[in-house]
Amino acid sequence: MQVALEVAHDLVGADFVSVFCLGDRDKPLLMGTACRLGQHRAERAARGYDHHVNEDRNTQLLQGTHGPGDFLTFQAADSISSFTYRRDCYDLPGISARMSLIRRSPAYGLAISLYTSAEAGLFPEQKHRDVQAVLGLLLVATERHVAFSLKGSVWRRDDIQTRLALTYPDLTAREREVAAMAIKGRTAAETADILGLAETTVITHRKKAYKRMNVTSLRQLVASL
What we know:
The protein is α+β, with helices and mostly antiparallel strands. The chain has helices at residues 2-12, 39-51, 57-63, 83-91, 128-149, 153-158, 160-167, 173-183, 188-195, 199-213, 218-224, and strands spanning 16-22, 29-35, 69-76, 95-104, 109-117. It contains eleven helices and five strands, in the order αββααβαββααααααα. It has a five-stranded antiparallel β-sheet with strand order 2-1-5-4-3, sandwiched between helices. The relative contact order is 0.13.
């Protein structure tokens, strides 16, 4: 993260960087964050985001509510209407603005964000294209790292849906979601509420998923991963 941040600072003046990945719909996973002005500031911003994750538009894009694709977002501190969100995510860590590039694929979502500090102010408008270009380069590099890391034990432990995609590529996206929820201990009713489906539909998807995976119970499924 530090190397990426130094490159981004030299090219476009970014003072913070963060990378989030989402595969299980519940909550984005922070892969890393850094700040040139002190790591404690990056960690404070991460804690604020964790508290206000559902208020952030990036979360919706990571979840795929706008479909697959690449999305560029910009958010300045003074444009945030929620006092607590702005305080926790921008004012306390000393952030002025954020530009993010989000890639939502069928398997997972990935978000790369660059931030300017309160001391530096907003990204100059004439540099917005440059910021977008840097974000694109970081996204490509990070996606390669994620693809490699997904094969390791850390990601296999933390991101169930992506692990299912790697182990059982024939599952449909919905079957993968439902199976991941089951592994995480969600009941059919809870899964239905989270995914916005009827409980009977969830049960049907779960049965189809089990059949594709050649298992008959949750215990067998967990043992196969």
